[in-house]
Amino acid sequence: MRAFFEGIQWLFENIFFIPQDYLRKLELEHWFIANGINWIFMIICSVAMVYWIKQLKLHEENNEENQDTTAHSFLK
Predict the structure, then answer these.
(1) Spatial separation of the C-alpha atoms in residues 4 and 12, rounded to whole Å
(2) What does the domain layout of the chain look like in residue ranges?
(3) pLDDT value at position 60?
């Protein structure tokens, strides 16, 4: 049983963590590039938020938004 868990340890340390080891070394030289994945996620979230706000404004301008507190049955 111990060999099984040591095999899992070897798999994670030597195979699955190769990208993380590369990013750890890259961070010392190029911080911006090493955090590229984070920048991509921030851009995606920003675009999604702008889209959502535009859609809310569009529905509000067309008077399609029901802001009554009894709009949902569970709030009655």
Answers:
(1) 13
(2) 2-64
(3) 87
How many C-alpha atoms does 43 have within 13 Å on its Cβ side? 6
**Amino acid (one-letter) located at 10:** W
Residue 33 and residue 26 in contact, taking contact as beta carbons nearer than 8 Å: yes
pLDDT, tens digit, for every residue of 19-70?
989 988 988 898 888 899 899 999 999 999 999 999 999 988 888 776 666 6
| Total number of residues shown for the chain | 76
Long-range contacts: 7-13, Cβ < 8 Å, 24+? none
Single-letter amino acid code for the residue at 73 = S
